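Appendix B. Raw example, untouched.
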Amino acid sequence: MDQNVTRFLGGSPGAVLVKLVFLSILVGAFLSLLGLTPPDLLRGIKHLVDSIMDFGFGAFREVFRWLVYGAVIVIPLWLVMRLFGQRRA
């Protein structure tokens, strides 16, 4: 049972907790630096849904543009994390 939990979490629960806390602090500091708060993000999501409802297909172009912009950052970071996250035997 413990091995299944460790495998699912990607490490021991304590180590994963410490990593998540550290990453949460970093992301929180970055968002604070940008002046963003969770309510701002929720309002943004609501605005996105409202835009889709109000503008129809024009909003889909905007969402696709956001997808591409985000992918330019997310995909390389994911790739680097996967490449350097591989355990060496």
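End of appendix B.
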